[in-house]
């Protein structure tokens, strides 16, 4: 039988079109599997959204499960003289703070350098030593810091050598006073003891020159004439009073003057510093907890909604995992905790109630009263005496269990993922079967095309023979 390279050539029939229709009909068997895979993917996405809302709620619950939250203190300051921050060891109270003067850093400007045409001009012919001297609050000899200056150094190089020295204790800069350049130094720290008080020029061994000009090249003059010599401003310690008690500090950041409180001195004047319980942090944590739960309820409502008019349904409508999650959380929220005498056992006792729609509602007045007067009882209620002893700990643990591989959400999510894998395998097998079927159809159509072509050829031959016979008979 002759080989047919394209279906339909031999027979004149549209066998390719027919084969395409058969292929399309066979592939229609894949559509239900595709829809099932899409359904599971939509579910997984919905589970992810639910998981995010659960995680946010768990984070809010964990914030309430921290006992230190209910022991935190805050500061309030009236007046602009100081700013204050309370630590964990601060004591509740009120303090009158008067700042007499702030701590300042010592400054020093060298004598004027004349004859410098540019800042990168070399000023030293050989290695030299520059010695910085610092004050001593106790009236002693103070501290000297030697700094090596390389040969050929410019004024910029001298400045940079000072700034690069890790123990210099100053920041160096260059000032032009209109008549010449000066090397300006400012102590890195405030206070009298850290104050820069002297600048000495010496040789490579640190021996001071009697004439500072020996430090420099011949074309540069170090002027010590009246009005051009060293200009120094000694640093001073801060002076303040706390409840009338005089205090001296080398820094404007004062620690220890009030136990557990850090004072940052801002300006001269008076301020009143109050250290009190941080009720704001507790209220924000409780409000955040309620808002996170209600947001979780909104997410669940969106995922399980049904519109009777349009027929639109949420992605998890009727899902058993969602019902299980809601049931478990309601049980923990409604169950409360075991409480000692005078403590809180139920959310309703602190001003939080569970409404008919499943959301939480705050009685602002009652909650404020509890936060102000019963923070120890609040701590016992939410945080308890162990990780899962309080309500917040129980809720956090419940969310962990629900989200785990064996939990309602974790199990539902992994189940959907497994179904997708199974459906994909089924899809591949089905697709391979369809391809085999179409291949058989193609072979059979090819055979049919060849057979019809052969029959057409035979028919044409017979007609030709009949025509010839008729022609011969007609001549006779």
UniProtKB/TrEMBL annotation:
Residues 413-440 form a coiled coil. It comes from the Bacteria. Keywords: Bacterial flagellum, Cell projection, Cilium, Coiled coil, Flagellum, Secreted. Residues 11-105 form the Flagellar hook-associated protein 2 N-terminal domain. Residues 235-457 form the Flagellar hook-associated protein 2 C-terminal domain. PANTHER family: FLAGELLAR CAP/ASSEMBLY PROTEIN FLID (PTHR30288), FLAGELLAR HOOK-ASSOCIATED PROTEIN 2 (PTHR30288:SF0). This is Flagellar hook-associated protein 2. It comes from Billgrantia pellis. The gene is fliD.
